[in-house]
Amino acid sequence: MSNADIQTTSKPTMKVMTSRPFGIRDKLGYLFGDFGNDFFFILVSSFLMVYYTDIFKIHAATIGLMFLIARLWDAIADVVWGRFIDTRKAGIQGKFKPWIFRMSFPLVLSGILMFVKIPGMSDGFYLAYAFVTYLIWGTLYSTVNIPYGSMASVITSDSVERTTLSTFRTMGANLAGLIINVLGPLILFVNNKADSDRFMLGAILFGILSISCYMACYKLSTERITLSETKEKKIHLGTTLKGLLKNRPLISILVASLAFMMLSMLVGAVNVYLYKNYFGSASMLSMAGLIQTAAVFIAIPFVKSLVNKFGKKEIASAGMLLSSIVYLALYFLPHLTALQFVIVSGLGMFGFAFFNLVVWAFVTDVIDYQEYVTGLREDGTVYSIYSFARKVGQALAGGIGGIAIGSVGYDAARSVQTQEALDGIYTLATLIPGIVYLLIFLIIVFFYPLNKQRTNQLAVHLTAKRDA
């Protein structure tokens, strides 16, 4: 990094609010935020497609197109909401927390409505109902997730503690994943078939848990850092976009995260069919969810020390390489039992757990780099751009997932799928992840510039600049 890269047309002043010191209460509060987010996010990504195909009787390809349209809209909503948040002044409770409180209630209600089936309606009605309720839920999700994600950079300015916040956020997501993926199949399926009443019961139960977690996030976390109100802070979108184009770390992590999110959504959708149809046991989804969560929690104790020694970039790329090797190996082992498959894939899950555990710390680093490049502090906007990429990944995954499931020959009307369809499902669940994880490894290694040394230099530079 060189001083020539810095634009000094504006000098936002960071101000630390008088409050209790940063500590475990903030970490738990931030954990509860993604705990609440992912009760419905994981429920939707893992089980909504099978709900639509098996209960609403909508063709998988049609669902894929619906997901694609809705998620592209959600991506735009993220950026609009992020810009809106950056124009708001911080109140007594901060700049971001109040929006979590206000919007979480309509968000959870819209999530429950997605799983309501009105008996006796036409196929056209179910398609329209699915599209409208899914679109509303996705839009409301932006109004909660954007302020939640942006909040990490104002809870603390310490880079090590921000990594801890990222870890606790991932812990919250994986706790929700543990509950959804382990208990979900037991609640939602009866005799290996999706049940409408059970899906509704699950949505209500997970909705209650979700709103409880959002309130815990609001109560336990504290925003400490604000920007002083200056005329320079009011910046046009064009200036922001110019800075974003110069933000190489952001562009790199956007591409890597887009690929990772697209794959995660695809695998989440495909795994239901993998275990239900290929292995003939929907209940094994519970074991897979348990193994995945266990892999993350096994990785957690190593993250902080490994980041301190090697850096975030280094451990994330190593994890991606391990995952790629495991899933490519699984592709060439098509005759494993369901239990053997779960055990071997657990090693791959352990690899990508390291990327998941530090990815939100990557985001705070690229927010800092945006300030380094432009002299502007725009937490909401930069985070919303990152979220935009994730939503595009979700859109593509939803579209590709539905189209891919349909293209390999899956037919919900058949009690037994063709061997061609089963082989296609297995390929989607193994070969595709192996290739994508390898691509992410290459992006992080060769294009993401903030290794350990450069990240530390960035923190020192920004601290000196703010003090000046």
TrEMBL record:
<dbReference type="InterPro" id="IPR020846">
    <property type="entry name" value="MFS_dom"/>
</dbReference>
<protein>
    <submittedName>
        <fullName>MFS transporter</fullName>
    </submittedName>
</protein>
<feature type="transmembrane region" description="Helical">
    <location>
        <begin position="168"/>
        <end position="187"/>
    </location>
</feature>
<feature type="transmembrane region" description="Helical">
    <location>
        <begin position="100"/>
        <end position="120"/>
    </location>
</feature>
<feature type="transmembrane region" description="Helical">
    <location>
        <begin position="126"/>
        <end position="148"/>
    </location>
</feature>
<feature type="transmembrane region" description="Helical">
    <location>
        <begin position="425"/>
        <end position="448"/>
    </location>
</feature>
<keyword id="KW-0813">Transport</keyword>
<feature type="transmembrane region" description="Helical">
    <location>
        <begin position="339"/>
        <end position="363"/>
    </location>
</feature>
<feature type="transmembrane region" description="Helical">
    <location>
        <begin position="315"/>
        <end position="333"/>
    </location>
</feature>
<dbReference type="InterPro" id="IPR001927">
    <property type="entry name" value="Na/Gal_symport"/>
</dbReference>
<feature type="domain" description="Major facilitator superfamily (MFS) profile">
    <location>
        <begin position="249"/>
        <end position="468"/>
    </location>
</feature>
<feature type="transmembrane region" description="Helical">
    <location>
        <begin position="28"/>
        <end position="52"/>
    </location>
</feature>
<dbReference type="Pfam" id="PF13347">
    <property type="entry name" value="MFS_2"/>
</dbReference>
<keyword id="KW-1133">Transmembrane helix</keyword>
<dbReference type="InterPro" id="IPR036259">
    <property type="entry name" value="MFS_trans_sf"/>
</dbReference>
<feature type="transmembrane region" description="Helical">
    <location>
        <begin position="395"/>
        <end position="413"/>
    </location>
</feature>
<dbReference type="InterPro" id="IPR039672">
    <property type="entry name" value="MFS_2"/>
</dbReference>
<keyword id="KW-0472">Membrane</keyword>
<feature type="transmembrane region" description="Helical">
    <location>
        <begin position="58"/>
        <end position="80"/>
    </location>
</feature>
<keyword id="KW-0812">Transmembrane</keyword>
<feature type="transmembrane region" description="Helical">
    <location>
        <begin position="199"/>
        <end position="218"/>
    </location>
</feature>
<feature type="transmembrane region" description="Helical">
    <location>
        <begin position="250"/>
        <end position="275"/>
    </location>
</feature>
<feature type="transmembrane region" description="Helical">
    <location>
        <begin position="281"/>
        <end position="303"/>
    </location>
</feature>
